[in-house]
Amino acid sequence: MKQFLGFIKKEFYHIFRDPRTLLVLFGIPVAQLLIFGYVVTTEVKNISVAILDRSKDDVTREITQKIIESDYFTLTQNLQSDTQIEEVFKTGNIKEVIVFEPNFAQKLGRDGTAQIQLIADASDANTANLIVNYTSAIISDYVQKQNKLQLMPMQIKPEVRMVFNESLQSVYMFVPGTMALILMLVSAMMTSISIAREKELGTMEILLVSPLKPAQIIIGKVIPYVALAFINAVTIIVLGNLIFGMPVNGSLTLLLAESLLFISLALSLGILISTIAKTQQVAMFISLFALMLPTIMLSGFIFPIENMPVVLQMISHIMPPKYFIIIIKNIMIKGTGFGFVWKETLVLIAMMMVFILLSVKKFKIRLQ
Q1: Where is 155: in which H helix or E strand?
Q2: Taking 80 as the threshold, does the pLDDT of residue 78 lie above it?
Q3: What pLDDT score does 14 carry?
């Protein structure tokens, strides 16, 4: 045990003596967090919506049909009461709830005006704003066409309300995405480079004939990066709160535990990359291009997954950052507990186990 602890201590010293490693671990994450705060934008397509129709008349059915026939929205659920609204938003599947007031057609025919309430999940501010604008435009188009057919003009007034992010701050979108990107890229890349360096310099064989077991060597290599990546996660949460006002509405303990799980997954992926890469350059190349672009493009960080072609949507299901971003948004923004993120948590655990098993298998093959 003393030799093992000494090995871990040596790894910490090695990291702190390398300015480039410290820059990658601490400089780049802070820069990315600040930069992404001002450049992230989104579009919407095939957005899942729910309908709460208190009137259930011909007019509300026509408007509903017109909305779901567009390329922008998909009707996922019909609600029966107001109490269901908050629950469907917490599941993360529904992005907008459209509420028709009672006696909708009767009020429209008698008074010439009626109200529709548009409630959007503003945990992704840009998308929420676009969703309500698209919905309002469809309703306005319906009204214009109906007015051409009737002598007395009618008016439907959409009442817009944002939940979880009423002021539509973009920080609610880019902090979770940046956190996933940084932890995935830094953890996996630094781990793979560290182990690949030992192989490239020929010191891995020396370590393997030392009193330390192969598993202890790998664990000793990984532990420093677990600690440093966890510090990165805490730094992002603190900076997001102090600089951009990003709240933590849920359990901080659960948030940190989920962050630690994602860091462990990223490190296990880094170990797998190191078993494939023979040099540091190859390890860095694989980490950057195989992890950074998919994390940005296919995780729902910048572009809504619903907008993507079906093939890319299927590929996104094997992207670990996708599930971590869902977890972060649920805990930090919606204030939900483990009961709402247990599925995503199990997916991350399963992926981590797969990466570890593949790494062990490849590592053994390499030693034979």
Answers
A1: strand 155-163
A2: yes
A3: 61
pLDDT of residue 348: 95
pLDDT at residue 34 above 60? Answer: no
Task: For residue 27, give both structure tokens.
Answer: 């400089």
Count the Cβ atoms, other than its own, within 10 Å of residue 318.
Answer: 11
Taken in order 36, 38, 44, 50, the sign of the CA dihedral is positive
Q: Where in the chain is the domain with CATH 3.40.1710.10?
A: 47-163
- If one counts every other C-beta atom within 10 angstroms of the C-beta of residue 35, the result is 12
pLDDT value at 364 more than 60: no
Tell me which architecture the domain covering 47-163 has in CATH. 3-Layer(aba) Sandwich (3.40)
How many CB atoms are located within 10 Å of the residue 234 CB? 14
Closest by Cα among 220, 217, 195, 178 to 40: 178
pLDDT at residue 212 is higher than 80: no
Backbone angles phi and psi of 167, in degrees to 5: -90, 0
Q: Residue range 48-60: average pLDDT?
A: 90
Owner of token pair 């590592």: 363
- In 159-173, which positions are buried (b, 16+ CB within 10 angstroms) versus exposed (e)? ebebbbbeebbbbbb
